[in-house]
Structure formats: C-alpha cells, structure tokens
C-alpha cells in the first residue's frame, strides 16, 4: 500500500470531476482564515476569558492557554502525518476509519456532524441576541433574536453555495478586523509595560500561578477556545498541494491561536493588575456583562468609540464562525454521500463546484436545532448558546481522542511513515492530554454550560448516544451492502 492508494480522491489539479470538490481553490492563508474564523477569536476572548479568570485560576489563565495549545499541538503532529496520506473532506471520520475500522469511522461521522451542527446552532443563539440588541439600540427596531438568526441562515446558505473562495474572502475581512483590534490592544499594553502592577509575567506563567485556584476549569475553557482548528484537513481536497498546504496551515493555526489567546488574556489581566483581575472578572459576570471585562480596558486605551465597535465585531466574529461550521458540516455530508453512507444526491455540486444539496441539508439542520428554542421562548444565550457549545466541545474532544488512537494504529499497520515521534510518541502524548481534557470537561460540565446538574447530565449523555446510533447505523449499512 502506498500513499497514492490511500488518497482515494486525488484529482487532476485543474480539472474538477463529478463528485470532487474544486481543487486548487485555497492556499495556506485561505485555509488559515477558515480556521481562525472557526475559533471566533473575539467570541473566545470575550466569552471564555472572564469565566476562566473568575472561576478558574485567576491571573494564571494565560498559562492554561499554553497548556491547551501544547496538547493540541501534540495532537496535530499525528493529525498532520495522517493527512499526508489521506486527503478527504470527511477528515475525522475518514482518519478514524483508516485506523479503527470502517464501522467506527462511520459512527464518528455522525458525532462530527453533531459537533459542527450544535456549535453552529449555539453561535446562532448568541449571534441573534447580539444583533437584536445592536439593531434595537442604533435604529429603534426591536425584533426577536430569531428573526435575525433565520435571516442570517439564508445569507450563510448563499455564501456557502457561492464557493469556498468567496467564503474565504468574506471571512478574511471579519477575522482581520477582530484580530487587529485585540492584537493592537495587547501589543500596546505589552510595550508600555503593562498595567498598574506591571506585566505580571510570574503572576500569569509561573507554575504556582498556573496551579492556583481551579486550573482544571481554566484549561477546560482554553481547550474549548481551540475548537475548529481541525478544519485544515476538511479543505484538503480544495487546497493547492494539500500534502504541503494542510500541514503548514495546521501548525500555523495552532501556533497563532495559542499565542494570540495567551498574549491577549495576559495583557487583559495585566491591564487590571494580577491582584485585581479575578475580582474584576467576577464583578463583570455578576452584572450580566462578562464581555465588559474585555471591552472596558480596550476602550480605556483607545477611546469610547471602541465600546461601539467591539459589539459589532463580536457579531461579525460569530458570523464568521457560523459560516465556517456551515462549510465544515456540508463537506461532511458531501463526503458521506460520496461514500454511499448517505443518499448519493448529497454529493451534488452546483456550478461553483460547491456542495449544493449538502449545504441545503445543513441549513435545514440548523433551522431544526434553533427553532424549538425560539418557539419555547428560551433565552438564546443561557440555553441555546450555553448548552450546545458545551455538548459540541465534549463531542469534538472525543473525536480528537479517537483520531489520536487511530493514527497510532494506522501507522503501526500500514508502515507508510516510520517516524516514531510523528506516528507514535506525539499522538500518544496528545491522546493522554485529550483524555485529561475530557475528564476536566466532564468534571466541570455544569459550569461549562452554565446550567443545572440535570441538564448537564442529559447533554452529556447525548454524546455517547449519538456515537452509538452512528455505530448501529454503520453496522446496518454494512450488512445491507454485504447482503
């Protein structure tokens, strides 16, 4: 067996074929923007950092981001090694299937779809609430959150159908805007020597600071902020020279995201002073405006106009993430259709060589997940966003774990790559780190979703149930094919 055999969907560089996504559409930068938009940097900072500081290890949160980044980087080594030999829009389920068997791989496909669709639905909830508030404030037009959410679903569907290049260009604008303002704030604070207590390097990165308070909670939110980096492999078929582009984009994404979150969170804490940051984050959360913990020091540096711009950037940050997860989910549906695990029409492409039927199905799934919360009159932030983001992170971490194990098994069997660090040591260490992260998530799941213990239990159970249903469906499909 060689790498050409394993890469089942190789296509001529400039000649798209039926059932093949458009090749040569994305370079390293294009894929990087899809990954960064999935991270929703401003959402991650404004949403997760205040909770991690208040309930986790206080000023030691930046160290938690470094720990999370190290775990993801170790995972990425095996992930990239597998990606050099398997190029497929199904990414996770294809990778898992190669090492742990087709049935397990197909079962994990259902879990991946569940993760992407629930995180997208979660972001729709927060997005609708923010846009509704912005429009009401600036125009006086007071419409329910779900009106803006449903309207945005139509826009996302249109952009997804317009092709991956168009999506990358739209995301580039939004991601650059939010990255720029947070990065400038962090660099300005860094170069002026920090806040009232200086930079506070030891207060944020020393071992004692990292282990203070509840470090598990901080690491849990840091890991959750990394969600979406694996999109690099999903766009492998559409990448220029995927065996070079995907590894470069993956490593670059992990390093950039880790450095960004660690630096910005460090400078936020420094702007308050390490001894005051935990109290400030707690006060912001008690007042119902956790994002204020982030927005206030930035506005203090750059002026009041930032207070008007940042909520808009938060909305565009969410929109960018929503579009990215739409593209990720429809490519999973497309790949499942092409592999005859879903109806073949799922891999129907439009004139832009974008997944048309899969995109429509993904949008319908988004509607089905969001509308019940609207009909029940539930708060979109406290329920839709909080619940689904928690369950999506748990599902995704399980996929990371299965993929790490599959990488080790695959290369022990296929011997396509005999480098021990890339195919055994790093994936094994990554698997241990991810298993630890899963334990932390389960131990603190009620905190992660901001809900009640009973709700947390039902949401936790949904992950193994979805995986089990996927395995049953795969077995039934396999028997039908053999019969």
Give the C-alpha Rg.
22 Å
Order of helices and strands: HHHHHHHHHHHHHHHHHHHHH
Low-pLDDT segments, ≥5 res: 1-18
The residue-averaged pLDDT reads: 82
**What amount of the residues lies in strands?**
under 5%
Which percent bin holds the helix content?
over 70%
The number of distinct β-strands equals: 0
Count of helical segments?
21
Distance between the termini: 28 Å
Report the major sheet: none
Q: Structural class, from secondary structure content?
A: mainly alpha
What would you call the shape? globular
List the SSEs and their pairings:
Blueprint: H1 3-6, H2 28-39, H3 41-55, H4 61-83, H5 92-100, H6 102-139, H7 145-161, H8 164-191, H9 201-205, H10 207-210, H11 215-225, H12 231-234, H13 242-272, H14 274-286, H15 292-302, H16 305-338, H17 356-375, H18 380-414, H19 420-443, H20 445-449, H21 453-482
Helix pairs in contact: 2-8, 2-13, 2-16, 3-11, 3-13, 3-14, 3-15, 3-16, 4-11, 4-13, 4-18, 4-19, 5-6, 5-18, 6-7, 6-16, 6-17, 6-18, 6-21, 7-16, 7-17, 8-13, 8-16, 11-19, 13-14, 15-16, 16-17, 18-19, 18-21
């Amino acid at each position: 067996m060689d790498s050409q055999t394993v890469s089942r969907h190789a296509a001529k560089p400039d000649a798209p074929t039926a059932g093949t996504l458009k090749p040569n559409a994305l370079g390293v930068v294009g894929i990087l923007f899809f990954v960064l938009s999935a991270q929703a940097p401003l959402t991650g900072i404004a949403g997760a950092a205040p909770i991690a500081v208040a309930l986790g290890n206080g000023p030691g949160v930046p160290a938690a981001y470094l720990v999370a980044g190290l775990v993801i980087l170790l995972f990425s080594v095996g992930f990239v090694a597998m990606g050099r030999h398997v190029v497929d829009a199904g990414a996770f389920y294809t990778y898992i299937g190669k090492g742990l068997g087709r049935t397990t791989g197909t079962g994990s496909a259902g879990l991946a779809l569940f993760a992407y669709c629930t995180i997208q639905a979660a972001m729709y909830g927060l997005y609708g609430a923010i846009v509704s508030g912005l429009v009401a404030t600036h125009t006086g037009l007071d419409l329910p959150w779900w009106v803006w959410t449903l309207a945005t679903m139509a826009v996302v569907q249109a952009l997804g159908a317009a092709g991956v290049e168009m999506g990358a260009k739209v995301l580039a604008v939004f991601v650059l805007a939010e990255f720029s303002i947070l990065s400038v704030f962090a660099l300005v604070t860094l170069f002026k020597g920090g806040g009232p207590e200086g930079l506070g390097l030891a207060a944020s990165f020393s071992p004692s600071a990292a282990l203070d308070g509840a470090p598990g909670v901080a690491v849990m939110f840091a890991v959750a902020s990394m969600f979406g980096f694996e999109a690099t492999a999903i766009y492998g078929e559409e990448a220029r020279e995927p065996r070079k582009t995907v590894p470069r984009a993956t490593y670059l994404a992990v390093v950039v995201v880790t450095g960004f979150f660690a630096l910005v969170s460090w400078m936020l804490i420094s702007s308050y002073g390490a001894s005051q940051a935990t109290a400030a984050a707690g006060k912001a959360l008690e007042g119902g405006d956790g994002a204020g913990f982030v927005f206030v020091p930035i506005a203090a540096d750059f002026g009041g106009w930032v207070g008007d711009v940042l909520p808009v950037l938060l909305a565009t940050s969410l929109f960018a993430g929503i579009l990215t997860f739409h593209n990720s989910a429809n490519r999973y549906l497309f790949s499942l259709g092409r592999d005859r695990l879903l109806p073949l029409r799922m891999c129907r492409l439009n004139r832009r060589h974008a997944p048309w039927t899969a995109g429509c199905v993904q949008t319908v799934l988004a509607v089905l997940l969001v509308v019940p919360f609207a009909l029940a009159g539930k708060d979109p932030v406290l329920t839709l966003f909080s619940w689904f983001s928690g369950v999506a992170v748990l599902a995704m971490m399980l996929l990371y774990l299965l993929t790490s194990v599959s990488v080790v098994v695959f290369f022990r069997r296929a011997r396509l790559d005999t480098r021990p660090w890339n195919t055994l040591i790093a994936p094994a260490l990554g698997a241990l780190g991810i298993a630890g992260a899963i334990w932390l998530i389960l131990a603190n799941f009620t905190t992660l979703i901001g809900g009640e213990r009973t709700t947390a239990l039902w949401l936790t159970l949904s992950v193994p149930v979805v995986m089990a249903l996927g395995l049953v469906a795969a077995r039934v499909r396999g028997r039908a094919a053999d019969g």
